[in-house]
Amino acid sequence: MRSVEEQQARVSAAAVAPRPVRVAIAEAQGLMCAEEVVAERPMPAFDQAAIDGYAVRSVDVLGADAIGDSSDAAERDAAAVTLPVLGIIEAGARTPTRLQPKLATRIQTGAPMPTLADAVLPLRWTDGGDSRVRVLRGVRPGDYVRRVGDDVQPGDVAVRAGTVVGAAQVGLLAAVGRDRVLVHPRPRLSVLAVGGELVDVNRTPGNGQVYDVDSYALAAAGRDAGAEVNRVGIVSNDPAKLREVVEGQLNRAEVVVIAGGVGGAAADAVRAALADLGDMEVARIAMHPGSVQGFGQLGPEGVPTFLLPTNPVSALVVFEVMIRPLIRLSLGKREPMRRVVRARTLGPIASMPGRKGYLRGQLMRDEETGEYLVQVLGASGGTSSHLLATLAEANCLVVVPEEIEQIATGELVDVAFLAQRG
């Protein structure tokens, strides 16, 4: 029986990232940048107002600070600093303006500063006058002004290679004038389900038939991992037909997942149908659930192809442990594994001897101590691996080392976060 780590190493070695592609920045969100985006122009490209107010020369409003300190209204009025207001400069104004001494001009946020003005006087520090403005407090040179290149200078790296493009990166790309960017695309994942007992969810199962759960669940898991998913759905057991469909998917995908037929005669039939596409090994892995699983690299390009158990819970756990990290590596992620924390158990846990356990659980946090606490869902020890409802309730997997069979209440265990439900 092969260890989980050995199988993960075999699978990870097959990871091949798709060639970077250039996409519109609106389509780049969530993908990893594959180039160093260097700014060619400063940002901002001109001195601009950081807030709404009055563009002034700071030397013209120096005395206003002393006025604000006086408690006598008559003294404040006598020494008041007032400036004539000449018009308004709006955001987007393109005509250069020049501010003469002892004058002010209204200015909007983002509008270009007039020549000779060195500060913006906030509206709240004035009486808000239109033709003349009474200054209640002075400003220093550079106050509330965004200078040329304050944010980005020409030659600065705006977005680094290896950065996941989020909202801020999209904004930066737009700010430096880039409409397209080179990214690592999502690996393409094809999901098939094999089994004569399967019917799609839009049909009523007959005697001995069940709904195709696997292809829907695994396709959703693939999207969660970051893949571009093609859910092929149910495929015929006929060897020629199965081979034709799989071969077609090998030509269009970076990863292929086949659910069903991983053990016994069914597995032999699937492997025989795919024999001339490459070697598909079905092995026992020291984990539960999902100890029996198949993996090979098929087709001329050696596409990683998986055979997963029919049991939806086992299939999803194998996907989580083996396939999700492969997809994350193909996306260019440096840390393909889920975040793991230490949590204290709220009840006893039993695990299958000699196998690494991945048990469904609910992770919570003590409000007073901040300590993580975890409760295993369903019966542990591998007796409830078919219960899909408990997986739907789980927000984590409790990872139990293969040499441990029993964990007492209150002990610390490793817990892997699953995707958070919104």
Automatic annotation (TrEMBL):
Database matches in SMART domains: MoCF_biosynth (SM00852)
Pathway(s) where this gene product acts: Cofactor biosynthesis; molybdopterin biosynthesis
MF terms (GO), sorted A to Z: metal ion binding; molybdopterin molybdotransferase activity
Signal peptide residue numbers: none
Essential cofactor(s): Mg(2+)
Species of provenance: Mycolicibacter longobardus
An individual GO BP term: Mo-molybdopterin cofactor biosynthetic process
EC number per UniProt: 2.10.1.1
Keyword NADP: no
Class of this enzyme: transferase
GO CC terms in record: cytosol
PANTHER family according to UniProt: GEPHYRIN, MOLYBDOPTERIN BIOSYNTHESIS PROTEIN
Keyword DNA-binding carried by entry: no
Pfam families tied to this protein: MoCF_biosynth (PF00994), MoeA_C (PF03454), MoeA_N (PF03453)
The protein's name: Molybdopterin molybdenumtransferase
InterPro entries xref list: MoaB/Mog-like_dom_sf (IPR036425), MoaB/Mog_dom (IPR001453), MoeA-like (IPR038987), MoeA_C_domain_IV (IPR005111), MoeA_C_domain_IV_sf (IPR036688), MoeA_linker/N (IPR005110), MoeA_linker/N_sf (IPR036135)
Limits of the MoaB/Mog domain: 190-329
Job of this protein: Catalyzes the insertion of molybdate into adenylated molybdopterin with the concomitant release of AMP.
The organism's place on the tree of life at top rank: Bacteria
